[in-house]
Design goal:
Number of helices: 7
Radius of gyration: 16 Å
Bound molecules: S-adenosylmethionine
Order of helices and strands: HHHEEHEEHEHHEE
CATH architecture: 3-Layer(aba) Sandwich
Number of domains: 1
CATH class: Alpha Beta
Strand order of the largest sheet: 3-2-1-4-5-7-6
Helix content: 25-40%
Strand content: 25-35%
Number of strands: 7
Structural class: alpha/beta
Distance between the termini: 39 Å
Shape: globular
CATH topology: Rossmann fold
């Protein structure tokens, strides 16, 4: 069962790649806002983790140095085509977000959009983001979290067993994740009627 789940987690995005851009349309306003507050400039070095089809590239200055990583080769191919169309200087690598092949403190911005809720190890992924971002850098998150002051109900935990298998985890809280990685919340806004958080984190 573990083998199957592991395989499915890695392979499902090859299936989602074709319709992905249409499915992600509801997140456009949140994505635009995330780019605005992250304020990426042309001289920045940026890492987009779990880049998918590269929708975030649309909102980054084409002259910025952007590294995109993803476990799905199919997704990365699409991100590469988008970068080419945008004339963006992009380096694409198949890589696991929980074990990044970069030295410490090398990126001005790390973008983690709709990723923490789809990986089995969000604690590792956010810790890796903190490791590779510069001390004066920022981590941009766009995702679905439950309020920090609540605990997921038993009903939600049960539903999550199914929903997280095909879509994403619906039991994650941002604050414990960020604090555990040594990051603090600089800004947090809610979009999509409270179903999507736009967050900017900074190293403590
Ligand atoms: C919901 S999509 C989000 C794509 C993009 N970040 C966006 O905002 O549109 C999740 C992406 O994370 C990738 N992913 C899932 N698990 C991963 C992992 N362990 N390491 C790197 N990428 C991963 C998937 O292949 C997929 O492209």
């Amino acid at each position: 069962m573990f083998q199957f789940t592991h395989h499915w987690r890695r392979k499902r995005y090859a299936l989602y790649a074709a319709p992905y851009d249409v499915l992600a349309i509801p997140y456009t306003a949140a994505r635009r806002r995330a780019a605005e507050v992250a304020a990426v400039s042309s001289h920045h070095r940026v890492l987009v983790i779990g880049a998918g089809t590269g929708l975030d590239l649309e909102w980054l200055p084409p002259a910025a140095t952007v590294h995109v990583v993803d476990v799905s080769r199919t997704m990365l191919r699409r991100a590469g085509k988008r970068a080419e169309r945008l004339g963006a200087a992009t380096f694409a690598t198949v890589m696991d977000a929980g074990s990044l092949g970069y030295p410490d403190s090398v990126f001005d911005r790390v973008i983690l959009h709709l990723v923490l809720t789809v990986v089995p190890n969000p604690e590792d992924v956010i810790a890796e983001s903190c490791r590779v971002v510069r001390p004066d850098g920022l981590v941009s998150i766009m995702d679905k979290f439950i309020p920090d002051a609540t605990r997921p109900t038993a009903c939600r935990v049960a539903a999550n067993a199914v929903i997280s298998f095909v879509l994403s985890d619906i039991t994650l809280r941002l604050q414990p994740l960020a604090a555990g990685a040594g990051l603090r919340v600089r800004m947090r806004e809610r979009y999509l009627w409270g179903h999507c958080d736009v967050v900017l984190l900074e190293p403590v």
